[in-house]
Write a structure and sequence with these properties.
This protein has 359 residues and is of the alpha+beta class. It has twelve helices and nine strands. The chain has two domains: 198 residues, Arp2/3 complex 21 kDa subunit ARPC3; 150 residues, Reverse transcriptase/Diguanylate cyclase domain (Alpha-Beta Plaits, 2-Layer Sandwich), CATH 3.30.70. The termini are far apart.
Length: 359
């Protein structure tokens, strides 16, 4: 019996881990979408069926296992709708293992478990302590399973030792399953946040210089293979040091944030905006030739020049930018020199008086 219950625990742990890894990256992240409900409910049903398949044969008809775990986890972490679907699938799959009195009682048992979990989840909704929720739900599960097992077997003294062992192992497995899901959920969230923050500028929300290098290499490789046009804009805020010295770094940050939104709006779907550092930005324009790039750059420069950058309830600033443009294959026939060429064009705009586009 211990070996069979240990197999059940291993199934629970492995399937939770696999499900969480796949589900976290799923395109159906919204738990209440139709596809999300189907994925979650079917996953719970599958876990329940596998747990029953590797169950303990108490009598010729009666099975003892941890099939309640997926229903409990769905109610606790996902929602009642996928939990209901999972419960129905577990009930149906029980009849594939055998059609007998025990299977009929399993319908009532799973139904009671689902209703009980739903009530407990509602009663404990305001409790932030996950240990309490896991303990109550696991104890409730053990009580329901014990009740139906006594009815099926008929004599408590026959299955008494089985109950004791089952309660111990089931309690450990149920509580551990809850904490495992919570741990993986938090770990995946933190890792996702780390991935996002490692490629995003913390102030403006734009992609950072690390992400720029990745996208630029990928864009360049695409052009080398398929030919076509590729343009790079380098942009710098004029007299930004003066703005910081005169109005303070807080105002400078506001300018950077507002300017970032303007650039994203101006570029729309044409290209990707990056903050390279300080007041310097870059824009990669795939499949964009020189003529189109110059129009986009001039439109961006114009929109910034005539935008009011609000720095307080009563005051605003005017800001201008200098832009350098390098376009393949029209202004350079070597992609590897484009970043340097765009930088040179930017410095040309600066030297010619700022607030202009140079190529």
């Amino acid at each position: 019996m211990v070996a069979d219950l240990f197999v059940n625990i291993c199934i629970v742990v492995s399937m939770i881990f696999l499900y969480m890894k796949l589900r976290w990256k799923s395109v159906y992240e919204e738990a209440y979408s139709v596809k999300g409900v189907l994925i979650d409910g079917c996953s719970g049903g599958l876990m329940g069926f596998i747990l029953m398949y590797f169950s303990i044969q108490v009598t010729e008809e009666t099975l003892l296992d941890l099939r309640y775990v997926p229903i409990m986890l769905l109610v606790l972490f996902i929602g009642k709708t996928p939990a209901l679907l999972g419960s129905v699938l577990i009930i149906i799959s029980r009849f594939f293992i055998g059609v007998n009195r025990s299977a009929m009682y399993a319908v009532a048992m799973i139904s009671i478990l689902f209703v009980g979990y739903s009530i407990l989840e509602k009663l404990l909704r305001n409790r932030t302590d996950l240990k309490t929720k896991a303990l109550y739900m696991t104890l409730f599960s053990n009580a329901v399973v014990t009740y139906f097992l006594v009815i099926l077997v008929g004599e408590f003294r026959v299955v008494g030792p089985t109950f004791v062992l089952y309660w111990i192992i089931s309690s450990i497995a149920g509580i551990a399953a809850v904490f495992l899901v919570d741990y993986i959920k938090k770990s995946e969230y933190l890792f996702s946040q780390y991935e996002t923050e490692s490629s995003r500028d913390f102030l403006t929300g734009l992609y950072n210089v690390r992400r720029f290098d990745e996208v630029w290499e990928r864009s360049a490789e695409t052009i080398r293979k398929n030919q076509g046009a590729l343009t790079l804009l380098m942009l710098d805020i004029d007299h930004f040091k003066t703005i910081n010295d005169t109005h303070g770094h807080a105002v400078g940050d506001l300018i950077l944030i507002e300017l970032s939104r303007l650039m994203e709006k101006s570029m729309a779907d044409e290209g990707t905006v990056f903050r390279k550092g300080g007041e310097e930005f870059a824009i990669i324009l795939p499949r964009c030739d020189k003529s189109k790039a110059l129009k986009l750059a001039e439109k961006l420069r114009f929109s910034i020049e005539y935008h009011d950058f609000v720095i307080s309830e009563e005051d605003y600033l005017k800001v201008t930018v200098s832009i350098g443009v390098a376009s393949y294959p029209e202004t350079t026939n070597e992609i590897k020199t484009m970043i340097d060429k765009a930088d040179m064009a930017l410095y040309l705009s600066k030297s010619l008086g700022r607030n202009q586009v140079s190529i």
